[in-house]
Backbone:
């Protein structure tokens, strides 16, 4: 599939999904003004139906026509909303479309760079598709180096502007994380591995925040002050978040989550607007970190 054809499919999905229901005539009008239609080619009905069939095959998205109104709609929106890759593609295309439409004010739109995503992402995902083992030379932030480490690339994860590959390390017989920006050399081998049939990356991280996976999940309660309750309601820290108590001065949220390094850093990043209430062990851990930070400024 060419990049241009792929972009057309995503545009069509996005246009119909955003509209809810839309006529073919309105789709044509939107296509005439679309930035990806830089060749100014008309969208013919036959081409549209060919795209519908291709979208079903490529993305599993069903575009149906409502009888009586002749309006087109996404018949299975869960294929977008519950499929992380499809949702990512849709969101990314929507942002890309907005950016392309506003190139004249590009100096007034600030974005975050994800430098580690460009190096080895394509190589690793190709190895994942073929279930091929890879060997890497890796250097952590402490200067420790590992050469020729053989791993089975299970899945990849993007977190805090960094790409990670979560891989089964043959030497240790367990899953480890590797930041793509710290890989010095990579080689795809001819050896294949068996991806576990019952393994789910989503389930693996269901009780975790970030990329660390070295703690057991516990019940944690956070007390949010000032505008922070509204912030957490609009953008929950974790899918297990639920409100326990609410009044004019604060709101208490509860989570079932592992108290990993990444989660600790997230809590600290909210400063004096978040207070750990429980568990007591976790509260004391956060208190000790804050005390050490306080000592830096004496």
Residues:
């Amino acid at each position: 599939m060419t990049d241009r054809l792929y972009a057309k499919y995503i545009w069509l999905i996005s246009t119909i999904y955003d509209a809810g229901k839309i006529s073919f005539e309105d789709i044509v009008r939107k296509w005439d003004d679309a930035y990806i239609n830089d060749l100014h080619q008309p969208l013919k009905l036959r081409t549209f139906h060919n795209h519908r069939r291709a979208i079903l095959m490529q993305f599993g998205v069903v575009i149906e026509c409502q009888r009586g109104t002749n309006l087109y709609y996404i018949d299975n929106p869960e294929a977008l909303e519950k499929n992380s890759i499809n949702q990512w593609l849709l969101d990314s295309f929507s942002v890309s479309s907005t950016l392309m439409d506003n190139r004249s004010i590009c100096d007034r739109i600030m974005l975050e760079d994800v430098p580690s995503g460009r190096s080895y992402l394509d190589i690793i995902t190709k190895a994942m598709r073929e279930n091929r083992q890879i060997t890497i030379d890796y250097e952590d932030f402490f200067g420790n180096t590992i050469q020729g480490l053989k791993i089975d690339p299970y899945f990849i994860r993007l977190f805090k502007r960094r790409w990670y590959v979560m891989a089964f390390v043959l030497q240790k017989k367990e899953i480890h994380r590797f930041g793509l920006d710290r890989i010095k050399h990579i080689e795809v081998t001819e050896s294949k591995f068996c991806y576990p049939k019952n393994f789910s990356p989503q389930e693996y991280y269901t009780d975790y925040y970030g990329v660390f996976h070295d703690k057991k999940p516990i019940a944690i309660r956070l007390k949010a002050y000032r505008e922070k309750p509204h912030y957490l309601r609009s953008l929950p820290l974790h899918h297990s978040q639920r409100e326990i108590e609410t009044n004019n001065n604060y709101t208490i949220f509860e989570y079932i989550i592992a108290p990993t390094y990444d989660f600790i850093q997230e809590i600290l990043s909210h400063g004096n607007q978040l207070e750990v209430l429980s568990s007591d062990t976790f509260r004391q851990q956060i208190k000790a970190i804050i005390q050490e930070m306080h000592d830096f400024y004496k």
The radius of gyration is 24 Å.
